[in-house]
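Our preliminary data section would be incomplete without showing what the modeling component actually yields. Below, a chain of 126 amino acids is followed by its predicted structure, encoded as tokens that our downstream tools consume directly.
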Amino acid sequence: MYPRYGGWHTYYHGDCIKLFIEMGADKCRQKNRRRRCQRCLTGKDIDEETIGSYLSTRDFPDPDLLVRTGGEQRISNFLLWQCAYAEFYFTETFWPDFGEEELYEAILDYQGRERRYGKISEQIEI
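Predicted structure:
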């Protein structure tokens, strides 16, 4: 058996670790259930950059703002890794009705936030 962490699996084989990364979105899951690493990695080889290089979104920047519509206040494993430092905006408006006005509201709310990227306010240079 192997331990499972969120959307990726870790298989231990001798002194190396083989990663299997699962896509978070259903469409990605249907098209490409798992993307297997092409090489055996040791624990020293694995860092944020390595994991990020195996994601389907590796060619895109991480989101700064995630808008969740329909009153839901969860991200349902959507871009879980990429949203580590994203700001979340939750709205009761359902997606089909989410228009230009609601987008401007989300952006205005985002502009009023202090982006700290995991730090506390005192650590941010002004």
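The chain has two domains: 4-53, 65-111. The CA atoms of residues 80 and 117 lie 15 Å apart. Preliminary results of this kind motivate Aim 1 of the renewal.
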